[in-house]
Amino acid sequence: MQYEREFSNWDRLSVSLPDPRTLVPISVIEQTLNQMRDEGQSRYPLLEFYPTMAAIRFGDFAAEQVILDDELVSRVAEEERVMRRPLNLEQVIRLALANTANCVRPGFSADALNDLNRVFYGRNSDEFTSVMVGSIPLQKALAGFIEAEFEGKTIRVKELAAGANVYKRWQEVDRNLPAGKQVEVVATDFSTNTLPNPEQLQFEAGQVSMTAEVYDLSESMQPVDSQDRFDVMLASFAFDSVWQSGDITLVKFNDKWYQELYRLRVHDRWPKRDEFLAVLRGESVTVDFEREDFHRVEVERILVPFKPDDHQFGRDIIEHYRRASVARFNFPAGIIRRVEEAFEHQLTDSGIFVILDCATNDPWGGMIDPTGQKGAPNEAFEKVGALDRFKDAAYYKPENFNLAAKILQEHGFRVEVVLVNDFIAQNGDEYPEVDQFGPNNWAMIVRKA
Ligand SMILES: C[S@@+](CC[C@H](N)C(=O)[O-])C[C@H]1O[C@@H](n2cnc3c(N)ncnc32)[C@H](O)[C@@H]1O
Q1: Residues 382, 391: Cα–Cα separation, whole Å
Q2: Comparing C-alpha atoms, which of 148, 12, 157, 25 is closest to residue 91?
Q3: Alpha helices in 166-234 (DSSP H)
Q4: Does domain 125-243+320-448 have CATH number 3.40.50.300?
Q5: Gap from CA of 358 to ligand 1 centroid (Å)
């Protein structure tokens, strides 16, 4: 199976860790910080480990990425003055974790990246068209899929986390539907800013009609009347951009389980720091932000021990990975919950839930290199450099889809996990001339069993 092959890569990794008892005099920390700033580096990690399992363990937790700033330097200096000796690495890291001065929230959490995500999309939603929305072969295949799967004249579709440019997808579907077929689309996203404008909802052939409404993926799906139920629920690059309750990143190392938690920290010397902190905390501010501004936010990461009873699907997860001594992955609890709710409250009995989310085959568990050098999975995302920040932890691997699929199957669903390219080949009239998806993009297709 896919995930077993991936695990074997881990076994070849060996990393030497610094000893937490190493002394780190304030002069060294100060010098490091200044040197990095002189070199124009925007990231100031005191501690940064990739891959994830190479983290310094301190008994009750492990630190993976901790950020260095002026506030920390003055705290360390003060501590050294009181103690009259340099601190060791563990003491410095504990002070760094207690340094909440420029953090969006003081604590570490699984869903901290949502704060960044909302602000980013709330301001930039119309500026890019992802490959999932922009790919003509994929939209043709969607038209073919709708035609092949549903006999009725009018098909109702609800799209989740659709984004402001979703009308482009449906314009293409509109051009490719066979005569006589009508598709009514309800495009949803978390705010009116992230949905198309009413004047954009024009479709040449007139076979597609669209309305837009606000639906936040963090909310449960409410029951709709039977005549308003949908035939298709569609989500592309959606569940990997939104941290829902139960979505977690887990690490298994030396047969021990850890959960990764995050905290957002804004660069302390950046002139827009206060405004950016305010907006990330959900306050309204008048300042404009550029895309580059989003690079002024760092994601700090720690690992805490994870036990099976800590999570609704903890036992399934641990059983699934029992033969791996090392693993790192995101578990998509939100997909499972929303799929179940959709079939209970909003989809017809013959309805289909299609999830075209990013996935990766990367054995590092989908972590993006924090320097951004590793590249994003597609052009559109590469242009949106800021996305690197929350993609830090957002990718799903096929094995994550497979585990979610297994759980959904046990709950009475029929699930296929297929390459997006195969979905196109099966439903479209052409294989993409330029391979836009490759081996990293997967689709999950769910029906009632
Ligand atoms: C990567 S974009 C994908 C957009 C589009 N579906 C596509 O495939 O290009 C992620 C989308 O998630 C939306 N989003 C972010 N947080 C959300 C939430 N809590 N509920 C619903 N949508 C959300 C964003 O506004 C954005 O449109």
Answers
A1: 11
A2: 25
A3: 166-176
A4: no
A5: 12
Closest ligand 1 atom to Cα of 164 = 27
> How far is the C-alpha of 141 from the C-alpha of 235, rounded, in Å?
15
Distances (CA, A) of 272 to 27, 266, 294, 337: 28, 10, 11, 38
- 436: tokens are 């836009």
Q: Are strands 154-160 and 230-236 parallel, antiparallel or unpaired?
A: parallel
Q: Which residue's CA is minimally distant from atom 27 of ligand 1?
A: 163
Which of 121, 138, 356, when mutated, tests ligand 1's pocket best, judged by the most ligand atoms within 8 Å of its CB? 121
Give me the pLDDT at residue 412, please: 97
In the chain, pLDDT over 90 holds for what percent of residues?
A: 48
pLDDT at 363 over 60: no
**Span 355-373, average pLDDT:** 54
| Domain boundaries, given as residue ranges, for the chain | 5-111+250-309, 125-243+320-448
User: What residues does ligand 1 touch, defined as CB less than 6 Å away?
Assistant: 117-118, 121, 125, 130, 132-133, 161-163, 189-190, 194, 216-218, 236-238, 241-242
Q: Whose CA is nearest to atom 9 of ligand 1?
A: 130
Q: Determine the distance separating the centroid of ligand 1 and the alpha carbon of 171, expressed in angstroms.
A: 19
Structure confidence at residue 49 (pLDDT): 63
The Cα–Cα gap between 308 and 92 comes to 32
- How would residue 362 be classed by pLDDT, with cut points 50, 70 and 90? low
pLDDT band (50, 70, 90) for residue 433: low
Residue-level length of the chain: 449
Q: CA separation (Å) from 285 to 77, 272, 290, 371?
A: 34, 11, 14, 29
CA atoms within 13 A on the CB side of 307: 2
CA-closest residue to ligand 1 atom 6:
162
- Dist CA 413 CA 335 (whole Å): 13
Q: What is the pTM (predicted TM-score) of this model?
A: 0.89
Instruction: Please report which confidence band the pLDDT of residue 395 belongs to, taking 50, 70 and 90 as the band edges.
Output: low
